[in-house]
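Reviewer 2 asked us to include a model.

Predict the structure of this chain.
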Amino acid sequence: MRRALTAVVVLAAGGAASAFLVNRGDTSQAADQTAAAVPVNTTKVAQQTLKDTESADGELGFGTTSAAVNRAAGTITGVPDSGQEFRRGHTVYSVDNKPTTLMYGALPAYRKLVDGTEGTDVLQLEQNLSAMGYTGFTVDDEYTDATAEAVAEWQEDLGLEETGVVELGSVLFAPGHIRVDSVQAAEGAPIGPNQNVLTYTGTTKAVTVQLDAADQRLAKPKAKVDVTLPDGGVVPGRVEKVSTVIIPAESAEKDPETKVEVIVAIDNQKAVAAWSLASVDVTFTASERKNVLTVPVAALVALREGGFGVEVVDGTASRYVPVKTGLFAGGQVEISGAGIKAGTEVGIPK
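Predicted model (structure tokens):
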């Protein structure tokens, strides 16, 4: 004979939702034993794509900000305006009337380049010289006499002394064309080494999101996200870069915070062209299960012998059927088990 059912409330896996669960009292009874009464509240098993999503606040802008740092003492003789854009070969700013030229490359300039120098920075320089139309050298990682001749020709075109040597500070390497974010140096002002001249970003709109460290699972490189714009429109995006940042404590009584900074790329730039800066919502999909059987979390019952089940309703009778649970999301839970299919009617405990 079956024992009485005991109702309890527990928290569903991952803390996604709370469920009203029922313990079946007698482990000797079959799993399909008839319940005491047909439940008043029922629902049907659905077949759908289940997504575990989470939204976070983001800022639409131009992505990561970098600093252009002066390398030699002198006087600022030319600075750009905020918002101004530059491409390869353009002069970004000038010190002592000597230009700092934008070239493309991932490795920042860190030394003087002369005949005999070898390395990735030499390769970057030669790739840029070639792209700007200078010839007569082999594009590789070796700075040769032929490289120096091309550099001298470039210097002549800039109106500089034709030394064939690339001084530290004469080139700003950036991943691509840039947009000036802010300017720290003033034209005519003296400037020393290692002082910021300006900050810059890329020219492509992107969204920056700071997640709590506990939500790092959401920040999967190349993962697709949805970005909700201020006008309610939704555009697709993808996780382009993930990094860890430390937020300093606001006071001695507080500890620094560790955040996961996520840069979300927007492929459809026209969709975000109306905003230079804007607050947006970013919806991340932590996991996804396609074409699975689901019921509301509240339909789950806990079986005394372990595991979960659902109360399957068949006309005027009902029985408890063990099920295996999968993804919990949005108040729904993925289930599978013998006799469970789309359209099966199940009870929801009060």
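The two ends are 24 Å apart (CA to CA). The longest strand covers residues 278-296. We have added this to the supplementary material.
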